[in-house]
Each structure stands twice: as C-alpha cells, then as structure tokens.
Amino acid sequence: MEINHTSYKRCDVLSVKGRVDSATAPQLSDELNRLMENGRYRLVLDLANATFLSSAGLRTLLNTQKNCKRHNRGELVLASVPANILAALELSGFVPIFRIFDDVLSAVGNI
Question: What does R_g of the chain's alpha carbons equal in angstroms?
C-alpha cells in the first residue's frame, strides 16, 4: 500500500493505492493519527486507487472519524470510492457515518 499526502489550507488529502488490510491498516492509522496530532482534523481520503478495504481498514476509518468529530473539530470524508469498497461500506453499515464524494475536488470543496 502507498499513501500520498497533500496538505491544503482547509484540509489534508490522503491518497491510498493498493490494499488496506490487517497488514497495512496500521500504516494508514499512523498517518491519520500523525495528522490529527498536528491539529489537522479536516481529512479527505482518496480511495480511487485502493483495491481492497478489510475490516481492519474499516476500523481505522471509524476510529479516525470519531477522533475528527470529537468536539466538532472536523471530519473524515471519502472520495472516489470504488464499487467493491462502497459495497463493503454499505454491508457494514458505514455509509451513513461518512460523507462520500465522487471526486477529490468535490470533497475538498465541501469539507
């Protein structure tokens, strides 16, 4: 899995490439936690190049969303979610928890 980070004035965009599973979810979690420790709570997760999201990845997203929304500091939004990952989000009941955008530009403009 590869993670690319782009910082903007209003938010940060993390682009994930590859599989997010039990072996790689800690790496994603560490990157998200590092941003939150630096006071960055408006996060966009670009999943356009992600191929798989396991339960460990779902747990990472849920924990990040809880931390971002605590005390109304921000939120984690998802962008460019592939059909297989969207199906996993729907099956697990996570769709109402996240705002999901068709592309990164829309996500950055609405966060």
Answer: 12
Q: Which residues contact 92 (CB under 8 A, 6 or more apart)?
A: 55, 58
Q: How many CB atoms lie within 10 A of CB 93?
A: 8
For the cut 90, the answer to whether the pLDDT of residue 107 exceeds it is yes
For residue 88, the surrounding DSSP H or E stretch is helix 83-92
Percent of the chain topping pLDDT 70? 100
Closest CA to 108 of 41, 13, 21, 27: 13
At 42, is the secondary structure helix, strand, or coil? strand
User: Would you state the structure tokens that stand for residue 1, as one six-digit string?
Assistant: 């899995």
22's CB contacts (< 8 A; 6+ apart) are: 54, 56
pLDDT (tens digit per residue) in 47-80: 999 999 999 999 999 999 999 999 888 999 999 9
Contact indicator for 100, 84 with CB cutoff of 8 Å: no
